[in-house]
Amino acid sequence: MDILSFLNSRDIAAHCKEIEKTWTPFEMAVIIGMSDRSMLEKHAAWRELISDYPDMPTPENYHCGSYDSLHQKISEYIAHEERFIEHFKTPEPGAVYCGKDNYGVYSSFDKVLKGMQEECEPDETDKLIIVKQFIDNDDTREAMELWLDYDGNPLKINFWGQKFYSTLDIEFDSHFFIDIPTPFKKGDILIGGIHPVKGYIPVGDADPVVLESLVIDSDQEFLDRIKYIGDRSDFSGWGFYAYPKGLHGDHILDYDRLEYYRGQLKGVQRMLKYASLHLRGEISATDLMTMQNRILLEDILNKIQPDHGSRLSEEDLNHLGGHI
């Protein structure tokens, strides 16, 4: 199995290939679960794991105990998701379907999917989200949710409320933290992790971030502990984002999605270049603040007079503060 193809970052996959990183069958099961592949692709890969790789106990962690057979737990997980999809698509008395972004209310899964597909083109969305709810239900929090690609292939399931409560005791996509090494260093400008405020955004539309640290770079004692108490939410780090009011430090979530930023920094994003230099020890904090103020002022003036060639020259900028 080409487990590297299930990693969400091409740069992390290339790094793991270069260092010849290997994983246990259990860790491979988690990587498959966290991948952005469709559920059918994940099920096929898990079945290949059962067929071609040795069985082993699952490790105990904060969320669940150890189980004697990884193969058995994978089989149970696949069966659970298949039952959910079948249940979700089956019409029921009082059940209605709607798109997460208000594409109308429908009596069947097929009708709402067709309606959503007619509303947008394949290149306009990375996913379709369909919700199944029951009318005349006092608990509006009870709902089932299915994420699909444009062609209708299931990607992810969610459910809320006692009516849909899951007895699943192990989840390979969220219950575990495993060792996924990265090539990234302090000061690198990256893109692709989940934004702490905006949530998941496709890489092409996401905001770049300057890396300060990642959980995976912690000392071994901490990593041994996080593997026991951690889960998907601990694939995290800290970095600096560029906002109209200046640089802002915040969490980086799902670091396994990060890639090197290959675009051109524009507008206030140009502050990230100097944040990167500062974190690498190449310029002082004073130099960083000077460049931030210059870039922010230029951005303000350009917004005030966008049609009057108000972009400041290098000479104008140097009058506003020191230059680097």
Per-chain topology:
Blueprint: H1 10-18, H2 25-34, H3 39-52, H4 70-89, E1 95-99, E2 105-106, H5 109-119, E3 128-134, E4 143-148, E5 154-160, E6 189-191, E7 209-214, H6 220-229, E8 236-243, E9 246-253, E10 259-260, H7 271-279, H8 285-304, H9 314-320
Antiparallel strand pairs: 1-2, 1-3, 3-4, 4-5, 6-7, 6-10, 7-8, 8-9
Helix pairs in contact: 2-3, 3-4, 7-8
Q: What do these coordinates show?
A:
The chain has a five-stranded antiparallel sheet with strand order 2-1-3-4-5, covered by helices on one side. A five-stranded antiparallel sheet has the order 9-8-7-6-10. With 324 residues, it is of the alpha+beta class. It has nine helices and ten strands. The chain has three domains: 82 residues, no CATH class; 77 residues, no CATH class; 132 residues, no CATH class. β3 and β4 form a beta hairpin.
Give structural attributes.
alpha+beta; 324 residues; five-stranded antiparallel beta sheet; 3 domains; 34% helix; globular; 10 strands
Outline of the structure:
The chain has 324 residues and is α+β, with helices and mostly antiparallel strands. 34% of the residues lie in helices and 17% in strands.
Principal-axes shape call: globular
Number of helical regions: 9
For the largest beta-sheet, the strand count, sense and barrel status come to:
5 strands, antiparallel
| Total discrete domains | 3
| Rg calculated over all Cα atoms | 24 Å
> Unreliable runs, pLDDT <50, ≥5 residues?
319-324
Number of strands: 10
For the record, give the distance between the C-alpha atoms at the N and C termini, rounded to a whole number. 50 Å
| Structural class by SSE content | alpha+beta
Q: Which series of helices and strands comes N to C?
A: HHHHEEHEEEEEHEEEHHH
Tell me the strand percentage band. Answer: 15-25%
Query: What percent of residues adopt helix (DSSP H or I)?
Result: 25-40%
**Order of strands across the biggest sheet?**
2-1-3-4-5
Mean pLDDT: 85
